[in-house]
Structures are given as C-alpha cells and as structure tokens.
What we know:
- There is one protein chain.
- This protein is α/β, with parallel strands linked by helices.
- The chain is built from twelve helices and nine strands.
- The strands form three sheets. A five-stranded parallel beta sheet has the order 2-1-3-5-7.
- Strand 8 and strand 9 (246-247) form a beta hairpin.
- It is globular, with a radius of gyration of 19 Å.
- 35% of the residues are buried.
Amino acid sequence: MRFWQLSQKDKEFDYLVLGSSRAYGSLDISLLDSIIDKKGINLGLNGSGFTENFITLKLFLKNGNKVDSVFLQVDPYSLMSDSSFSNSFHSYAYLPYWDVDKEIENVLHENIPLLKDWPFYPALLSYFIYNNYYSPYNIYKGLKNKGEFCSKGFDCYNGNKIFDTLPKDQNIIGDEIFIVPDSKDIFYYNKILDLAKENNIEVISYMAPTLDTFSNFETVNILKNISYISSNSKIWDPNLFSDATHVNRFGRDLFTIEFGQFLLAEFNFKEKISLLQKKK
C-alpha cells in the first residue's frame, strides 16, 4: 500500500485522508465522496506516526499531486507513536527518496540510526539485522519497486480499505490510558500543519472511534483542538469494532456518514469550489 501511495503522480483530489491505520480503516472514501460530492484518496497507513504522515504528504505533493483539504486523523496513539505502534516509521519504503529532498533526508537520518554515522550504502547491509523493521525483502521492495502497487485489501482507485469478512458479535473492552505526548510526535504534527499551510491546503482534524478511555485527554491541547470527535453513543457499540481501536465495516459506514454530515454542516463542503471544479 505504501508503494501504491508513493506511485501517485500528477493527480488532483478535493481531499485526502492522512494518519495511521485508524485513518485508513475509519472512513469509506467512496461513501464519503457520495455524501459531500467530492473526490478523495486515503493515504492512511498501518502503524504510521506523524513522522511518516509528514513524509507521505511531502512526497505526495512533490510528485505533482494537488489537493484542497487534508482530513488528519489525530489521537493519543499518534502522539505516543513509539509506544503505541510496533514500528511508527517504515523507513524501507522511503529509502529511494533519501536524496530527493533535504528535509526528507534529515528525517531518514533521524529515524534510521545507522544512517547517522555511516555512508548510506554500506549501512544498508547492516539493516538486515533489524528483521522486523528492515527485512531484506522490504528493503528490496523499497529500493527496486517504484511502479504502481496494488495488493489485496485496498482499492487501487482511491486507497479505500476493503473488508474481506463480515463482522462478528464480540465482547471487546477498551483500556484506560494516560497520555504522555512525545515531543517528536508534536514536532511532526506541527510540520504537517506547516506543510499544508505552505501549499494552501485546509487541514480538518478528526479522531476515529475507540473503546479506550483517556484520563487526561482534556489536558492535551492538540487533542482539545480536534475538529471532530463523534458524540453519537451508537458508535461506541463494541459490535461496531474489530478490536478496541479499530471500527469494523459497519462502524466505518456509520462514522463516515457522521463525518460527512459534519463536513456539510460545519464546512459547507458541497458548496466548496474544488480544484476539479475549477478545471471544468
């Protein structure tokens, strides 16, 4: 999926969805398109923190793509990415781009320890010891494959997640979590906002449903400023979740309809003159 995203070039969208797996799986792009009468693409990535989200958006724009709005999925997990995700930055996917932009090169140096002190190619051989993060197979794909990648599990037209199985009734219980934001995540969250501003892109933040609770949510300014968090009690039904932090197919449909209605009511999305409409 990462390689498919990186292969998108010279395209125009009214909006894109950006964030972790909770962005990837929480919104049905086709359904949202039909509600707000716009064209979108999902750039959500499993296990990605704001650092990777920043690089994803940076490369998307450098590839000649244009977009009016970014729907940025913001939550406590993304502000604690190293502890929330097993690997919050999938460096292997971005190795071919390490020298195309100084800012991208700096991010790679920060996130691949061996790049800090070694020339790039000799260090690459040492990555094989990090099998979970830098397996030979993933590195090979990252360096060699730059074409269009379409694999099972997502729609190659708009990046939509495809659910293969029907949801099952289950008793899922969330945890109570104390939020300790990481300075790196805050830094790259702000980098995303700055990059969007530089390109005249509107950012609308939202938080996908979760069954977890957060004892100090209201004390974290970034979270307090999220544009949309569902207040519909129906969305917290465990039967709408595949696990405590991800909605299933039915949960996604419900949340997408809610979010679409929010965009229409608060941002008058159907009346917005989009890039695509301007060209007609």
